[in-house]
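Fill in residues.
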């Protein structure tokens, strides 16, 4: 069997929590692909297939692949390796891109089918984003556990009324595990599920959209502090066009696009994050011995909460 030529029935996966799947056998060549990522992020300077690695807030760095059109379908990966000398980093990045695109598509196809996900019209898989966490970055904490990234949803909760392309399903690929910490940790309805990704695995889970929120839960996730080395990951998403509701279109007409977007951007900040510390601007929720503070939009969007709290939050900013 050729690398990358698994059928959906051959996939090895584990459901570590309802609707959180880990796919484990799609990258037997993960060591070679990790070397490519490492070399690209440290020396390529955007000269080849991957663009320039840019700062990713304080977490690390990231790069987007440049556009390339494939002429042969399906892709014969073994033939591809023969066709290219792989002497240069361009060819290695090209092979990495082919492998990631094909394997993520397989994982997502399996996940969507098994979980019977109803895709919104015109849903699409976004081009992958390649990223690296630097070690020893702390941005928050939950008790004694330091976090490199706070608990959040990829779905932009604060943009629930926007006309945009929002997030439905997240698929994160991990190419190395030679570091300490770095677990991805989920907070779902009071449960905390932490998983240390294995090299070559893909973790697939709900992005937090109300259109795919099993049990009416947003599926918040964060990342434990990374130490002892860099953590490489590749982020892929199923996204969908969001039309925007009356709130968006009436204010667009009132303010004009430029001014309304400035106002709207101030309205969205922080709503997709939870805190384990008191926050006067958020709603307190207690699950057993765990207390969090979350946006009032969570009850409104996922649990049919009243619009009164939302109106109060947006007063003086909307029609």
């Amino acid at each position: 069997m050729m690398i990358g030529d698994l059928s959906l029935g051959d996939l090895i996966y584990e459901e570590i929590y309802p609707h959180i799947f880990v796919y484990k056998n799609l990258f037997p060549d993960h060591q070679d692909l990790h070397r490519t990522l490492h070399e690209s992020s440290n020396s390529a300077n955007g000269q080849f297939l991957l663009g320039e690695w840019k700062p990713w807030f304080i977490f690390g760095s990231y790069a987007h692949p440049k556009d390339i059109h494939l002429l042969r379908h399906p892709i014969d990966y073994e033939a591809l390796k023969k066709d290219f000398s792989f002497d240069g980093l361009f060819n290695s990045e090209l092979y990495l891109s082919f492998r990631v695109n094909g394997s993520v598509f397989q994982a997502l196809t399996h996940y969507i089918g098994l979980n019977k996900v109803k895709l919104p019209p015109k849903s699409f898989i976004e081009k992958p984003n390649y990223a690296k966490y630097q070690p020893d970055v702390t941005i928050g904490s939950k008790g004694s556990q330091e976090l490199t990234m706070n608990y959040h949803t990829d779905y932009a909760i604060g943009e629930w009324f926007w006309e945009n392309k929002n997030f439905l399903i997240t698929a994160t690929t991990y190419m190395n595990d030679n570091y300490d910490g770095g677990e991805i940790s989920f907070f779902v309805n009071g449960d905390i599920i932490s998983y240390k990704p294995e090299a070559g695995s893909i973790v697939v889970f709900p992005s937090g959209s109300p259109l795919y929120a099993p049990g009416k839960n947003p599926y918040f996730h964060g990342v434990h502090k990374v130490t002892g080395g860099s953590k490489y990951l590749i982020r892929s998403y199923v996204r969908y066009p969001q039309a925007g509701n009356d709130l968006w279109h009436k204010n667009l007409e009132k303010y004009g696009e430029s001014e309304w977007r400035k106002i709207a951007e101030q309205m969205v900040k922080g709503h997709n994050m939870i805190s384990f510390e008191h926050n006067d601007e958020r709603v307190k929720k207690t699950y057993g011995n765990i207390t969090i503070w979350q946006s009032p939009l969570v009850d409104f969007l996922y649990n049919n909460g009243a619009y009164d709290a939302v109106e109060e939050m947006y007063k003086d900013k909307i029609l």
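The mean pLDDT is 89.
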